[in-house]
Amino acid sequence: MSRPLVISDCDEVLLHMVAHFKEWLEESQGVHFELKGNNFNTAMRWADNGQPLEQKDIWRFLGGFFDTEMHRQLPIEGAVTGINRLAEDADVVILTNLNDERQERRTRQLADCGIHARVFTNQGPKGPALQAILEELAPSRAIFIDDLPQHHQSAAEIVPGVSRLHLCGEPMISEHIDCAHKQGHAHARIDNWAEALPWLLEELERDPR
To answer: What is the pLDDT of residue 35?
Structure first.
C-alpha cells in the first residue's frame, strides 16, 4: 500500500530566504531592501540614488543569491524537526521554484540542514508540478505546504483533493502575504511549525477526501 505524501516548499517554509537576501544586498550589492505591502518588485532600490531596480536587475540579484549565497540560509524554527517528524509517517518531497540547474545545490543545502528529501524544481504556478508528482508517486493522500497564496490557488484548481497548508515562517513578510485560507484556496493558515505540525499530523491520519 502506498504511503501518504507531504510536498513542501523550501524558502520561508523550511529555510529563511528574504532576510538573508536583504542582508546580502545591503552589505555588498549597493541595494536597499524594504518590503512595504506585499510587492517584492518595489522593495529593492539602489542605495546611492533611491531609484527602484529594473526587473532585469531584480532577477539578476535573485539568481546571484541562489548561485553564491545559499549557504547563508538558516532553518526556520521548528522546520527541520517538523518535516523529519512528518517523514516518519509519510514520504516527503520538496517542490521549490528554482531553475533546474539549481536542483542539486538545493538538495545538498537541505541535507546539510538535516532534511534528506527528493527535490523537484519548478517555474511558475505549482499546480501542474503537483499533478505530475502525484501521478508519478501515487500516494494514498497528499499534503501541500507553501508560503505563497498563488501556489495554493493553482493547487486548488488543478489538484483539489490535496490538503493545503499556507505557512510563511518569515516574520518580515508573513503579515504582508494574502491569506490563501481566507481566499478559500488553502485548508488552513499557520505560520509557525509548533502549531503546524499537530495540524499536519492530524491531516495525515484523516480519511482522504
So the answer is: 80
β-bridge partners, 118: 93
| Whether 45 contacts 51, CB under 8 Å | yes
Q: Is the pTM of this model over 0.85?
A: yes
Residue 1 confidence (pLDDT): 61
Other Cβ atoms less than 10 A from the Cβ of 56: the count is 7
Residue 37: all three cell numbers together = 505591502
d(CA 198, CA 187): 14
30: left (phi over 0), alpha (psi -120 to 50) or beta: left
Decide if 103 contacts 18 (C-beta within 8 A).
Answer: no
Query: Low-confidence residues of the chain, pLDDT below 50?
Result: none
CA distance 199 to 205: 10
CA angle, 151 as apex, 67 and 95 as ends, to 5°? 45
Which domains does the chain carry?
Answer: 5-16+74-205 (3.40.50.1000), 18-72 (no CATH)
- CA 41, 15, 72 angle in degrees (round to 5)? 80
